[in-house]
Amino acid sequence: MEGLARPFFSFLSSTTAVQSIRTASVRVRALPSPLPPPLQSNVEGDLDRPRYTGNDPLSRFVSSLIAIKPLFDVMKLVARQVFIRTAEKNGVDWRGMANEILASDVYVEKELLENKSLVYPDYYLKEFHAYEEGNLSWEAASEVAPATLSMMLRTTPTAKSAAEATQVLRSAWLQAISSHHQMYSGGQGVSSVLDIGCSIGDSTRELADWFPDAHVTGLDLSPYFLAVAQYMEKQRISSGLGRRRPISWVHANGECTGLPSSSFDVVSLAFVIHECPQHAIRGLLKEALRLLKPGGTVSLTDNSPKSKVLQNLPPAIFTLMKSTEPWMDEYFTFDLEGEMEKIGFMNVNSIMTNPRHRTVTGTAP
Fold it and tell me: What residue stretches are annotated with the Methyltransferase domain (predicted)?
């Protein structure tokens, strides 16, 4: 889920949700180049992962606090207030953007997209991001856009505009995908792209802009998120911003998509796996391998355990963050690169694409 951008890690100013998405969208093309050089070593901390994750004493202490239900409820409330206050301090009209989505015709899209026979995995039914219903609610879906936009400026504090912040963050991630594919695919083009955990489609639209000749599919477990994704794409098209190849939206589980084997040149997961337990991450990787054509590229961009910024978060911030991310410990202790190789990916490569995030790529045999 971009899913990532998602409402905690996905926190630019704009007057409307749709206008904000248009402003943040940067139309760029893939250019031949070697793998991007890693960022300066000073973006990585001294540890393999933050002390507030895993079995370290600090992590166990924070987890014990979160396990106290009354205290957890207070943490959720405070975390939500912090998210919104931080976003609005940076010029993001959080409430206005969310209210515009809720007042729109987005509800019709859910009826068109939802697979009512889909069985949700247990881990997905937990509370996420201070929402009791997790990602299965209109409240969560309506707030992804302002949360994502806010993240752009927070991660790129030197950016002078939403468009500049978006270009810096998105282009580094997309260039990492293109560079890996150009280096290891054996000259294979990109005609089909799958965005697993696409959320409201921010990453999907970026992939479609980056690979304009490809058929791009966005897939997510939340019909609420997908409804917003399709609504925003329809608004974009109605304003005259059409595409050569329309985006397809699929309501399915990324671990068992039901899509044909060996049918995609690129499979991307943007800000998805930090929301998953380790068994689900393995399932997503195995499904990505099944879906990729030989020589195809998988890309996972997410929070980096080695990020100096994340390792040095103040105690109050990481406690609130951990209270909204039930699978944080499992994510930060997961050997992603090692598991990818074990599952069968070749040419596994990990680079820091900004001071907070890494992009890990691999090739299907």
Answer: 193-296
Residues 48-100: pLDDT tens digits?
999 999 988 999 988 898 888 888 888 878 888 888 898 888 888 999 999 99
Is 138 a domain residue?
yes
Q: What whole-number distance in Å separates Cα of residue 216 and Cα of residue 2?
A: 15
Closest by alpha carbon to 247, among 230, 227, 269?
A: 230
**Residue from 342, 261, 272 nearest 294 by CA:** 261
- 3-state SS, residue 33: coil
From CA 57, how far away is CA 332, in angstroms rounded?
Answer: 15
Alpha carbon distance 284, 197 (integer Å): 10
List strand residue ranges (DSSP E) for 184-263, in order.
Answer: 192-196, 215-220, 248-251
Task: Please report, for the domain that includes residue 24, its CATH number.
Answer: 3.40.50.150
292 DSSP assignment: E
Token look-up 């930060």 returns 332
Helix (H/G/I), strand (E/B), else coil: 297: strand
Higher pLDDT, 302 or 317: 302
Which residues are within 8 A (CB) of 338 and not within 5 positions of it... i.e. 6 or more apart? none
**Which residue in 13, 21, 9 sits closest to 201, CA to CA?**
21
Alpha-carbon gap, residue 349 to 73, rounded angstroms: 40
pLDDT per residue as tens digits for the range 335-353? 999 999 999 999 999 999 9
Instruction: Please provide residue 314's backbone torsions phi and psi, each rounded to the nearest 5 degrees.
Output: -60, 150
194 located within any domain: yes
Give a yes or no: residue 333 inside a domain: yes
pTM of the predicted model as reported, rounded to 2 decimal places: 0.87
Distance CA 328, CA 322 (A): 7
In the chain, the number of structural domains is: 1
Q: Look up the domain containing 197 and give its range.
A: 17-363
Separation of alpha carbons 47 and 60, rounded Å: 17
Among the listed residues 117, 144, 109, the one whose alpha carbon sits nearest the alpha carbon of residue 252: 117
CA angle 268, 232, 300 (to 5 degrees): 10
Q: Dihedral, CA atoms, 291, 169, 1, 338, nearest 10 degrees?
A: 60
User: Which of 42, 51, 4, 49 lies closest to 355 in space, CA to CA?
Assistant: 42
Q: Edge-to-edge strand order for the sheet containing 292-303?
A: 248-251, 215-220, 192-196, 264-270, 292-303, 357-363, 346-352
